[in-house]
Write a structure and sequence with these properties.
The protein contains 20 helices and 17 strands. It has about 650 residues and is α/β, with parallel strands linked by helices.
């Protein structure tokens, strides 16, 4: 009875559908099953071919599977599960159910064909993996094998997650870590190797931005430390990383920045370099102390830099060894002094160098001062007042400031440190020569920024030396990047100051009554104070010799009328002053050679422009009103 009822019930279900279609599925059931198995087999053959090709393209070459390929392989797996389910139904199908299952089979054939078609990737299966990190330009490490080995052991092992590399300035902490960074970027221990220079004073927002750049992510708009910390905590928690924080000066909270504490499960690590063991201990880091080089290691490094042929000069070896000893085992001092003596084979010159070094170091107490005196020797050996001035100029900017080549040369030109040449092209050529000379003598370090652009940096110890040992002789007051919220009061402005830098601070206002009396002041840098919106009329009255004024990247809305009386002004920089809407008359500024209004808010031609008879450089990039300046096209603006 059951044998009769079931076919009848099946026919009843089909009454609402086309009997012909149902019958067709029923009659062609076996053919459809064969077609499904054939198409399914072809799909999996393509999948196997792709997987085999991926093994040869991805693993040995450091490539990454395209997202579309990963997605396609995922779809194939889903189809495989579905076809296997249909296979089960085919095996159990009754005669009267062949039409219904046959329809299911036919539909799945079309899906399989479509997925098979999508599995053609004419543009390849893989792309280059994002770099794990940046290869840092650096010197090879001389000596310090035990220190490097200890750090390496902590990084490869699981016992230690946070490492503090400590030692006095110039002892080689950064060089050691750059070498380790470069080795790990090439290996697979970490998915990301991030290098961030912290410097003094700590700026949490800047640190967060730099870490985000290392992970190639954009943080949400608005400088919200807590929101950014949460975002970074999430990003970093998903990636096995090594975070190297160079030049840390003070204790800070990892949670406040958004840095997850390393665990065995995460496999991530943190290393920072620091001059203070106390800071390392307070933050709970495993301490690795970098000691000065031995005399033999120092001698090897010195000879590598000055050239080993120097040992062939009669009667020089003993003097050379004494000079190396005066370097105190500090790689920075050894390298800088060796470069300053390179090419010199006169024994008397070497004797004089030894005498000067001994007198300098003997005359001071304190480790910092002894280092400064050693480095000052190399500065003096430049024997070119113009290049020396160019070097000291670099100290006006915040610690670890990355100078792009053109930017730095432009600064030197504005300061007339490179002057007296017939053309701007010749002046630039001289600037390039000076910059290369400073880099060759290791007084500036050539490196790359996060955009992979070549930049030049001043080693923090050399900057300290320039500010504390040389700056006072030049009348410098440098308070750049010090987190100031106010400008110094009148007592803080000496009447002998020549150059003042208050760049990259949080200065928001200048007191109305403040009028510093600085008759010889020639340069004032207030750039990168984004909240500074107003300058009082009286502020510039005591600066009659002012030649360079930099207000770039401030929130300034209008310049005071007293600007019009700065008749010696030769460079006025107002780049990225987007709120700036008013400039007073420029008619009296007949000495003005450079006016930079790039990306400023000025929308009309400043009054008195036609009187600027000395103007050589006018930058209006991103300006919408160049057509208004047709009468002034005789000037060289670009």
């Amino acid at each position: 009875m059951e044998f009769i009822l079931e076919p009848i019930m099946e026919l009843v279900k089909c009454l609402g559908r086309s009997a012909c279609t149902y019958l067709d599925y029923h009659l062609k059931f076996d053919e459809a099953v064969i077609n499904l198995r054939r198409e399914w087999g072809a799909l999996n053959s393509r999948k196997d071919d792709i997987n085999l090709k991926l093994q040869t393209e991805v693993l040995p070459l450091g490539k990454e599977v395209k997202h579309e390929v990963q997605s396609w392989l995922g779809h194939v797996q889903e189809i495989n599960n579905e076809v296997q389910d249909i296979q089960g139904k085919i095996q159990k199908v009754k005669w009267y159910s062949r039409g219904r299952v046959g329809k299911l089979v036919c539909k799945k054939i079309e899906v399989v064909k479509n997925i098979h078609k999508q599995g053609s990737f004419p543009n390849g299966l893989v792309v280059d993996k994002p770099p794990r990190g940046i290869i840092m330009p650096t010197e090879n490490v001389v000596g310090e094998d035990s220190v490097k080995g200890k750090i390496w052991g902590y990084l490869i092992g699981n016992a230690v997650g946070m490492i503090g590399v400590c030692g006095i300035g110039g002892v080689g902490k950064t060089t050691i870590m750059k070498n380790i960074n470069n080795e790990l970027v090439k290996q697979t221990k970490f998915d990301k190797v991030i290098w961030v220079t912290v410097s003094y004073p700590l700026n949490v927002i800047k640190l967060q931005e730099n870490i985000a750049h290392g992970f190639a992510v954009e943080l949400p708009k608005g400088e919200d430390k807590e929101r950014w910390a949460a975002e970074l905590m999430s990003i970093m928690g998903r990636v096995r990383h090594l975070l190297i924080l160079d030049d840390v000066w003070e204790k800070f909270s990892l949670n406040e920045v958004g840095i997850p504490k390393p665990t065995i499960e995460s496999g991530s690590k943190i290393v920072f370099t620091c001059r203070s063991i106390d800071v390392c201990q307070k933050m709970g880091y495993e301490i690795v102390k970098v000691e000065p080089l031995s005399l033999q290691e120092s001698l090897n490094l010195f000879l590598d830099k000055v050239g080993r042929h120097i040992l062939e000069v009669p009667n020089l070896k003993g003097i050379l060894e004494l000079i190396v000893k005066e370097c105190g085992g500090l790689p920075l001092a050894i390298v800088v002094i060796a470069e300053s003596m390179k090419g010199e084979d006169d024994v008397e010159v070497w004797k004089n160098a030894l005498n000067e070094l001994q007198e300098r170091v003997k005359s001071v107490t304190g480790s910092d001062q002894k280092i400064f005196k050693r480095l000052r020797f190399s500065y003096d050996c430049l024997n070119n007042f113009e290049i020396q001035n160019c070097f000291v100029y670099c100290s006006l900017f915040p610690e670890d400031y990355p100078f792009e080549r053109e930017e730095l040369i432009e600064g030197w030109i504005d300061e007339r440190l490179i002057d007296g040449l017939a053309s701007r092209k010749a002046t630039y050529a001289k600037g390039h020569t000076f910059l290369n000379m400073l880099a060759k003598n290791c007084l500036l370090e050539k490196t790359v920024n996060w955009r992979h652009v070549d930049v030049f940096k001043m080693h923090d110890v050399l900057r300290d030396m320039a500010i504390k040992s040389i700056g006072p002789e030049f009348g410098y007051m440098v308070k750049a990047g010090m987190k100031l919220t106010e400008v110094p009061d009148e007592h803080g402005w000496g009447n002998d100051l020549k150059k003042v830098s208050l760049a990259e601070n949080n200065i928001s206002k200048i007191p109305l009554e403040l009028s510093p009396k600085c008759p010889p002041l020639s340069t004032l840098i207030l750039s990168n104070n984004p909240n500074l919106s107003e300058i009082p009329e009286s502020f510039f009255e005591g600066m009659p010799e002012l030649k360079v004024l930099d207000l770039s990247k401030t929130g300034i809305e209008a310049l005071p009328n007293s600007i019009s009386n700065l008749e010696k002004l030769s460079s006025l920089r107002l780049m990225w002053c987007m709120r700036l809407s008013f400039l007073p008359s420029l008619a009296k500024l007949r000495a003005l050679k450079k006016l930079n209004l790039c990306s400023s808010g000025i929308e009309v031609v400043p009054q008195g422009m036609e009187k600027l008879i000395s103007l050589e450089y006018l930058d209006l990039m991103e300006w919408d009103h160049k057509n208004l300046l047709q009468p002034f096209l005789k000037y060289s603006f670009f």
